[in-house]
Specification:
alpha+beta; five-stranded antiparallel β-sheet; four-stranded antiparallel β-sheet
């Protein structure tokens, strides 16, 4: 079920084929409860079609592009031929993910005794996709949960479900941090610099490894490269800032490929 009652033109929708006639196929829109659409024979496939059932059949799950929506008449015109294989696979995967997310909300509802509808409405106010919301909960935790106008018991239930079911994608980036100080207390200066090189960045884990003076390896694990690079830069800048304020030097050296 979608947060909207009707699809919009140009949208890709998952449909179940209900009936096939010689001139068209009639389908139910899986993401829009109670909505049905029509695929004219000219929109089934490219080129001349001799037998429509060579291309579509009852009970089949298809992905269509919305051509026109007439809410007053309850008509939705669809195209099957305008959806390529890549779009079809991607949309089906997104749809399956949303089905999972709906099921997870049922678990959270049972644990918290808060209706599914109330939880979904709160999440849809911040996200167009429930699955994307769960991904952010798994990655960013409270930062995401605080966006939802929900009781703490529900937030805790959502966090539990996300941690148990969402597999968070992770990427790793690393570089060499060179820190040098000629001061008598240079060792302490470097220690302070290294402590500052572990700032808190939502979703990122920063690890420092001593390689031999003056080199230290900075390793960052994060859900995406943008977040990882941001954390790496923040860590390096913090450490270099400490060194320079103590009349030392610091620089970030990217690892050679």
């Amino acid at each position: 079920m979608s947060e909207r009652d009707w699809p919009i033109e140009g949208e890709l929708v998952v449909c179940s084929v209900v009936e096939v006639k010689d001139f068209a196929a009639f389908v139910a829109l899986d993401e829009y409860e109670g909505r049905q659409g029509l695929i004219p024979i000219a929109e089934i496939a490219r080129g001349w079609i001799k037998y429509i059932r060579d291309y579509i059949r009852e009970g089949q799950k298809v992905v269509c592009k919305v051509l026109h929506v007439d809410e007053s008449r309850g008509h939705i015109d669809l195209s099957l031929k305008d959806v390529n294989e890549h779009q079809r696979r991607e949309k089906i995967q997104d749809w399956k993910n949303e089905q999972k997310a709906h099921k997870w909300i049922e678990f959270a509802s049972k644990d918290s005794n808060v209706p599914v509808k109330d939880i979904e409405e709160a999440m849809y106010k911040e996200y167009s996709s429930l699955y994307a919301a769960f991904e952010d909960i798994a990655i960013y935790g409270d930062t995401t949960l605080e966006k939802f106008s929900l009781p703490e018991v529900v937030r805790n239930a959502l966090a539990k479900v996300a941690s148990e079911n969402v597999k968070v994608p992770r990427v790793t980036v690393s570089a060499i941090l060179e820190l040098t100080s000629n001061k008598p207390d240079g060792v302490n200066v470097i220690r302070r610099a290294l402590r500052s090189a572990e700032p808190k960045v939502d979703g990122a884990e920063i690890e420092l490894l001593y390689l031999g003076a003056p080199k230290y390896r900075v390793k960052v694990v994060a859900p995406d490269y943008k977040t990882a690079e941001k954390a790496l830069e923040k860590a390096a800048n913090a450490a270099i800032g400490v060194m320079e304020r103590a009349d030392g030097t610091g620089k970030l050296v990217r690892k050679q490929k």
